[in-house]
């Protein structure tokens, strides 16, 4: 069980306590005269070829857009949004090009969910000129986040003032299309994320032309505490939903962002606290009473499971978040092995408040982890290969709550984390066609229509 926790107050409208390996934040927004609080929780995982990603130290919450040093596009879109109707899938970084390859190259991003191909994006890039020694790198331009000033995204504002939709205190105008907050290209949005999808990256890594990795089945949990409650307070469950998958090819990691909101009406925000974190299957968090900790009393972690009660929309809740560094995307050279040890789409719908999602149910057990960390070899024992699922198309699990229904209204048709650090060194023990799930996986992918 994860017991570590950190309290942050000054930066966010509602003070939060972050449990375990998660970063979190809150933002407050007004719509039709009613006030709401959104909790944002983020976890970062190391990519594991042919296996399950590993939870590491979280990237910080990014408060706003960060331009790419190349001068083209964004390094990050920012994590602060009140609500996302669809799930964004973003890929940033560089494709590695072997010295023998010249001219145009093709990269691919695919997501398989419950045995079905839910997202499949191919992109042709101008490759490097022939010659030279060693592998070269080409920036993947076109799969990362779009700026709010992108014409097709900006058009969704209508007459709204974009300055009122920035920061941690927002005023959402009546009739705003919620698609304005989606940063992914239209082709890279999904109805929702379950948390156990398989992600396929093609053409990104010279020594592994097709990298396949599975999300860990993690889920965010959050509770809202009110000062007037009697100690020990248990808090009210805040339904959290995964709505963003950010893949950083250069650092060989990905981050998942969860979001949940609730109404707080005229409540004093200073009298509210949020406690939140991320749970892995079989690793529940233990809760603390944040007010007891502040008053100097013992904040003994509670083993009580999070409430599964459905929160009606007009209820109170607050966000979750960890401290943001001065530069929100610093520290790109942390080895993921150390991190593991430590812990698209239509633009429609105006801004009628979406109903709050239901709290996610218990996560299904995770398959045994393959020992090839990141992009290392896949020479795991045969016995382990037998125990883990043969393909990502095994027994389906129930999807988390469907996306809340929003006001349907016509809208305009749909229209990085760059390599600040040095390129990663050569990875040993990699074959062009890795062992493990290779043949079985490809067969299943072909049956699901995931291969050309």
Automatic annotation (TrEMBL):
Residues 352-362 have a biased composition (Pro residues). InterPro entries: DUF2169 (IPR018683). Residues 346-366 are annotated as: Disordered. Residues 33-113, 139-259 form the DUF2169 domain. It holds the Pfam family DUF2169. This is DUF2169 domain-containing protein. It comes from Sorangium cellulosum (strain So ce56) (Polyangium cellulosum (strain So ce56)). The lineage of its organism: Bacteria, Pseudomonadati, Myxococcota, Polyangia, Polyangiales.
């Amino acid at each position: 069980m994860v017991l570590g926790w950190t309290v942050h107050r000054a930066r966010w409208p509602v003070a939060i306590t972050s449990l375990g390996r998660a970063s979190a934040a809150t933002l407050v927004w007004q719509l039709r005269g009613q006030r709401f609080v959104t909790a944002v929780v983020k976890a970062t995982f190391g990519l594991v070829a042919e296996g399950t990603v590993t939870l590491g130290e979280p990237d910080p919450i990014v408060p706003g857009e960060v331009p790419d040093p190349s001068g083209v596009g964004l390094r990050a879109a920012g994590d602060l949004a009140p609500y996302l109707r669809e799930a964004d899938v973003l890929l940033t970084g560089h494709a590695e090009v072997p010295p023998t390859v010249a001219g145009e190259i093709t990269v691919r991003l695919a997501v398989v969910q419950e045995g079905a191909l839910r997202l499949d994006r191919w992109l042709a890039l101008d490759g490097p000129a022939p010659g030279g020694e060693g592998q070269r790198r080409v920036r993947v331009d076109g799969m990362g986040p779009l700026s709010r000033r992108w014409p097709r995204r900006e058009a969704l504002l209508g007459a709204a003032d974009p300055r009122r939709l920035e920061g941690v205190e927002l005023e959402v105008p009546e009739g705003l299309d919620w698609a304005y907050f989606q940063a992914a290209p239209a082709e890279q949005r999904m109805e929702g994320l379950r948390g156990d999808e398989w992600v396929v990256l093609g053409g990104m890594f010279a020594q592994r032309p097709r990298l396949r990795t599975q999300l860990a089945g993690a889920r965010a949990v959050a509770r809202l505490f009110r000062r007037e409650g009697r100690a020990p307070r248990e808090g009210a469950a805040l339904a959290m939903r995964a709505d963003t998958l950010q893949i950083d090819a250069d650092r060989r990691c990905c981050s998942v962002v969860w979001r949940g909101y609730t109404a707080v009406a005229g409540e004093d925000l200073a009298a509210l606290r949020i406690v939140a974190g991320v749970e892995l299957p079989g690793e529940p968090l233990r809760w603390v009473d944040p007010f007891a900790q502040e008053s100097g009393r013992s904040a003994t972690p509670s083993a009580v499971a999070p409430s599964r009660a459905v929160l009606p929309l007009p209820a109170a809740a607050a966000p979750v978040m960890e401290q943001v560094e001065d530069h929100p995307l610093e520290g790109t050279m942390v080895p993921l092995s150390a991190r593991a040890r430590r812990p698209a789409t239509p633009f429609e719908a105006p801004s009628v408040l979406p109903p709050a999602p239901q709290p996610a149910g218990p996560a299904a057990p995770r398959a045994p982890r393959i020992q090839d960390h990141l992009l290392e070899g896949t020479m795991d024992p045969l016995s382990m290969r037998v125990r883990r699922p043969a393909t990502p198309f095994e027994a389906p699990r129930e999807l988390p709550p469907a996306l809340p229904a929003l006001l349907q209204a016509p809208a305009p048709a749909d229209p990085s984390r760059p390599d600040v650090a040095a390129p990663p060194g050569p990875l040993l023990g990699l074959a062009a066609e890795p062992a493990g799930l290779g043949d079985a996986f490809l067969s299943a992918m072909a049956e699901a229509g995931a291969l050309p």
